[in-house]
Amino acid sequence: DSPMARALLKKEVGDLAVVNTPAGEASWYVNAIEYVKP
Fold this sequence. Notes:
single chain, 1 helix, Tscrpt_elong_fac_GreA/B_C, two-stranded antiparallel ribbon, alpha+beta
Protein backbone atom coordinates (compact mmCIF):
# COMPACT_ATOMS: atom_id res chain seq x y z
CA ASP A 1 0.00 0.00 0.00
CA SER A 2 3.00 2.30 -0.35
CA PRO A 3 2.12 5.42 -2.37
CA MET A 4 5.64 5.51 -3.79
CA ALA A 5 5.46 1.86 -4.86
CA ARG A 6 2.09 2.46 -6.54
CA ALA A 7 3.49 5.49 -8.38
CA LEU A 8 6.42 3.42 -9.69
CA LEU A 9 4.33 0.51 -10.99
CA LYS A 10 4.70 0.03 -14.75
CA LYS A 11 7.23 2.85 -15.03
CA GLU A 12 10.20 2.53 -17.38
CA VAL A 13 13.58 4.22 -17.57
CA GLY A 14 12.94 7.81 -18.61
CA ASP A 15 9.54 8.05 -16.92
CA LEU A 16 8.55 10.48 -14.19
CA ALA A 17 6.74 9.14 -11.11
CA VAL A 18 4.64 11.65 -9.15
CA VAL A 19 3.28 11.09 -5.63
CA ASN A 20 0.85 13.35 -3.80
CA THR A 21 2.01 13.73 -0.21
CA PRO A 22 0.62 15.76 2.70
CA ALA A 23 3.48 18.23 2.09
CA GLY A 24 2.68 18.51 -1.63
CA GLU A 25 3.73 16.73 -4.80
CA ALA A 26 6.96 14.77 -4.89
CA SER A 27 8.43 13.43 -8.11
CA TRP A 28 11.13 10.97 -9.09
CA TYR A 29 12.80 10.48 -12.46
CA VAL A 30 13.49 6.83 -13.27
CA ASN A 31 17.07 6.70 -14.55
CA ALA A 32 17.76 2.99 -13.91
CA ILE A 33 15.97 -0.18 -12.90
CA GLU A 34 17.99 -2.88 -11.21
CA TYR A 35 17.16 -6.08 -9.35
CA VAL A 36 19.66 -7.22 -6.75
CA LYS A 37 19.26 -10.80 -5.53
CA PRO A 38 18.94 -11.02 -1.74
